[in-house]
Design brief:
The complex is a heterodimer of chains A (about 300) and B (about 250). Chain A has about 300 residues and is of the alpha/beta class. Chain A is built from ten helices and seven strands. Chain A is globular and about 60 Å long. Chain B is α/β, with parallel strands linked by helices and about 250 residues long. A seven-stranded mixed beta sheet of chain B has the order 2-1-7-6-5-3-4, with helices on both faces. Chain B is globular, with a radius of gyration of 17 Å. The N terminus and C terminus of chain B are likely disordered. The chains are: A alpha/beta (about 300), B alpha/beta (about 250). Chains A and B meet through loops of A and helix 3 of B.
Chain lengths: ~300, ~250
């Protein structure tokens, strides 16, 4: 969990598999990487067993690139599709029990703050709508009420995709799924509204149709969580299997949903807004007017 | 020690023990103290455990060193100090391969068993490379325990755990508190047993990089390439001899 951990012991480099050598020589560690650089460096996301055309994978890949300090980040996930990628990514990953991700993250963040007083360590929960809005709902809400300083990212595919297509709290009303043949009878949960009520410092809703926007949102969420308080990013990451979206049409679906009901939106508390403006000003001074955003 | 049915003492022998072998500790195998080691589940002197480990690495097929993260990554002075004696050990074992376990990430959908060993499915690397003796070193204990159990469950590999902490009950041979000094001592014991007459199976060969060409070149001949197989009383456990005598239908 620092640059020290990616220094090879004397004599061993030639015995490391090629992908590890690449991570050491030209990996994402030690400096921020941009989405526009993808393809020119070894990414932390490794081969994975996700379904072809999965929008969640695209989102996670982009989000990992965007993490501001990969070597100082711990990701916490839980049961669900997302962990299949996350557990194979070159970032420390904790597989929380279903429902306790945000409780684990709370303890971890506090522990890291005690252990590493002078070095910020980022904790990011990345889990599905079932893990966060249904089974993990209590831990999520209480971590927000307690103003725990970590980021919660919901991979919202609006279904329990891994277990055959049960409706979740985040499923749209009326949606018919394999395990919900009569259609969902209740509204989609308003997690953005709940986050606002709980005092979350930065809240964003995003669809992976625009990679740089996803990257900037994640970076913003992690940095604000580091300095101000809890942040929440809700990402539409369709399940093309359970919603029967043809693989080549996954991004068409994402664009359509974005236009209809999942448009990009973000909310800052006053404190978060003031921090972010200050951060951007300082960064522009260092890097010049074009140095900040990829948008 | 816990007595098994018919009064037999539980022995930690090369497998295959079958799916879900009992944890050796549940069967009454205790961890060694400083100066001691474990051999087949019995507490013996450190010297005896190391000698048996050395003989296994010299005389069983496709000996392999599996350095874990605490060996591979130079994150502390302690880790960096262990590198030199590790390679000293490697140089003393003719025909040895070094296959790393760089971290504990699961590797799906496909592992390259020639390049890496993974604690989620270490048996794949053992099977693919036909490894009959291996050393785990620098693997965090909880992952080493899982790895050793899976190997014992499904392969005939003689496992050796050189552990920086308390040692491992599920290894056929294990020594605790292994730092740079004890690794160097293991190299010395390798030299000693060779001097005493144990003929290495792959005498004359150096460290073998893993890869298809090397795997192919090692295959085939019964009794080893040099016909120098030494019956040391260790290799009768498991399937080593059966495979040597032509039952190895997986031979490439």
């Amino acid at each position: 969990m620092s640059l020290e951990t990616i220094r090879v012991a004397p004599g061993f480099k030639e015995y490391l598999p090629r992908e590890y050598q690449d991570l050491v020589d030209d990996g994402p560690f030690g400096r921020e990487r941009k989405v526009s650089e993808v393809g020119s460096f070894k990414e932390a996301v490794e081969e994975h067993p996700m379904c072809a055309g999965c929008a969640m994978t695209l989102f996670i890949r982009t989000a990992i690139v965007a993490l501001p300090s990969l070597e100082n980040t711990v990701i916490i996930g839980t049961a669900g599709c997302g962990r299949l990628v996350l557990s194979q990514t070159a970032v420390p990953f904790i597989y929380g029990n279903y429902g306790d991700t945000n409780a684990v993250a709370s303890g971890l963040k506090r522990g890291l703050a005690i252990r590493f007083k002078d070095k910020p360590k980022d904790v990011v929960v990345m889990a599905g709508d079932g893990g966060l809005a249904d089974i993990g709902f209590s831990a999520v809400m209480h971590s927000w009420f307690r103003k725990e300083r970590f980021t919660t990212v919901m991979l919202d595919n609006e279904v329990y995709g891994n277990t055959g297509g049960q409706e979740s709290g985040m499923t749209q009303r009326g949606a018919i799924l394999k395990m919900a043949p009569l259609g969902k009878k209740f509204e989609k949960m308003d997690m953005m509204g709940l986050a606002k009520t709980a005092g979350v410092a930065y809240i964003a809703r995003v669809v992976p149709t625009n990679a740089t926007r996803v990257a900037n949102t994640i970076r913003k969420a992690v940095l604000i969580a580091r300095e101000v308080g809890p942040t929440y990013v809700q990402a539409y990451t369709s399940c093309n299997i359970e919603y029967a979206i043809p693989t080549p049409k996954v991004m068409d679906d994402a664009r359509m949903i974005e236009q209809q009901r999942y448009g990009f939106s973000e909310y800052f508390t006053d404190e978060a807004k003031s921090y972010w403006e200050h951060y951007e000003r300082e960064r522009r001074q260092v890097k010049g007017p074009d140095g900040e955003s990829e948008d | 020690m816990v007595m098994m049915n018919r009064g037999a003492v539980y022995e930690v022998l090369p497998g295959p023990e079958g799916i879900l072998p009992p944890a050796a500790t549940v069967m009454g195998v205790c961890l060694p103290e400083e100066g001691e080691g474990l051999l087949h589940g019995r507490i013996v002197s450190e010297e005896e455990a190391m000698r048996s480990a050395a003989i296994a690495m010299l005389t069983r097929r496709n000996p392999t060193l599996f350095p874990g993260p605490l060996m591979l990554w130079g994150w502390t002075e302690h880790t960096r100090d262990k590198s030199a004696p590790f390679f000293e050990v490697a140089r003393e074992i003719p025909g040895v391969r070094i296959i790393p376990m760089p971290d504990y990430r699961p590797i799906y959908p496909k592992i390259d068993p020639e390049a890496v060993i993974n604690p989620c499915h270490p048996n794949l690397t053992i099977w693919h490379n036909k490894i009959e003796a291996c050393v785990l070193i620098g693997v965090h204990c909880h992952f080493a325990n899982v790895t050793l159990k899976i190997i014992r469950g499904g392969t005939n590999c003689f496992t050796i755990a050189l552990c920086a902490e308390a040692g491992h009950e599920d290894a056929m041979s294990s020594v605790p508190n292994v730092g740079a000094e004890k690794i160097a001592r293991f190299a010395e014991i390798l030299r000693l047993v060779k001097k005493e007459g144990v003929k290495p199976l792959y005498a004359g060969q150096g460290i073998i990089p893993s890869g298809w060409a090397q795997v192919a070149s090692l295959g085939g001949s019964a009794g080893g390439q040099n016909g120098a197989f030494v019956d040391n009383g260790l290799s009768h456990h498991g399937l080593s001899h059966d495979l040597e005598h032509g039952l190895d239908e997986n031979e490439e």
